[in-house]
Each structure stands twice: as C-alpha cells, then as structure tokens.
Amino acid sequence: MEDLTQRQIDILNAIIKEYTENGEPISSSILEKKYKLGVSPATIRNEMVELAKKGYLKKEYFSSGRIPSAKAFRFYIQNLMKERELSTLDEVAYKNSIWDQRSKFHRLLIQATKVLSKRTALLSVAFSNQGDLFYSGVANLLSQDEFTDYELSRHLFSLLDETSFWEKMINEIEKRAEEVYYLLGEEDFRDPTFEECASVFSEFQGKEVRGIIGVLGSKRMPYEVIIPQIKYFSHLLSQILTEQGM
Length: 246
Prior knowledge:
246 residues
C-alpha cells in the first residue's frame, strides 16, 4: 500500500488505535508493551522515524512520543479501517427518532442534528441547498481536550456562520460523487488552526431538496463507528424526503 512496508503499516495501525483511545503522544515502549508487533523497541523507534519522514507521524514539541498526522488518518480510513455495521436496533432507533418530523423539512433537519449529536457525542451539522443550516452538540466538543484551545474553538464555531463554506462543501461532495466526504486537519481545512479537527459528511437528496449531514470533532474520532452512522442517516433522510415529495 502506497510507500509503506507491512511492518510500517502494522506500527501505524497500532499508533492510530492508541492515539484514538488516549489522545497522547505514542512512544515505542508503549507500542512494544501493549501491541504484539513482533519486533524490538529499537526497531519500532527506527520505523517510527521512517514514518515521520514520510509524513505519517508528527513529533510533539514537549514529548519524545509521536502522533499520527492527517495523512496517517487518511491512510487508515482508506486502507485499514473496518467499519462497524449498525445493528437492526440502531437503525430502528435512528428511524423512530426522526419519523414524527418527516412531513416538515425544517423540523426534520433540526431533529436529525439533535439525534446525530447525541448518538455520536460530536457536533452535528446539516446544511441544505435552501440555505438552511442547523447544528447541535456544541457542549460535546467543549468536553474534548482539543477544544479547550480558545482559538481552535473560536475558528471552528465561526464556520457555522459561513454559508459559503457549506455551499462549497455541498458542491464538492456532489462533484466527487463519493458516499462519504471527510476533512482531516490542516491539509483539508487549509488552515493550521484546524490541525486537530476532522469532519465526516454525506449527502442526502430528495426530489427538490439536497444537502449534507455529518459531524465535526477531533481528528481522533472513532471513524469506524462514526462513518456507518453518517451513511445510514443520510440514506434515511433521502428516503424520507423522496417519499414526502420534497
């Protein structure tokens, strides 16, 4: 896969799992003790240096450990991640939670963002081609360590007032024709302030209305859990909108 050896892939996978769980810089000793990689700490250190040279790891200024970059998370999502399928109970719960609002578009999206933020513990956002923007779960972000940074939180919340940003995202998703669209760190947001951020969105579309729904949060969100939920919810909204003739 790309320019990585299998050993480097195994080490990178372990680093992402550890960082997603704890949010702390990862050392070779932690990997050697916790994960069965079959190599010595010295070998792990050498491979981590190579991964850093290739742009998959970054070094924290005050730490000897390293953290995965946006490039690393992108590689993980595209090549290593195994999505966790939603159970039938989860699908029914999602459907029941918004079904009563199906006949009124605005109430449907308001309820959808509330449900999605509650189930993902992230900030959920929905935007339509009618110019409607709804979000829910601000408190979810402020409970995460990354968002105790005032500048990061201020810049992120300012996006919620930028209609042009969301219009651009709708158009980008439509152009790519991908089921899931994500932004990871500075590379995708094109702003160093957002290095610790990520978003996952998917498109919904009825007869006249189309839009996007998804979540914003830390770059270390559990993508294998989040992505299937975004996929299902966007499909559900499309189904409801089509059936309601919207």
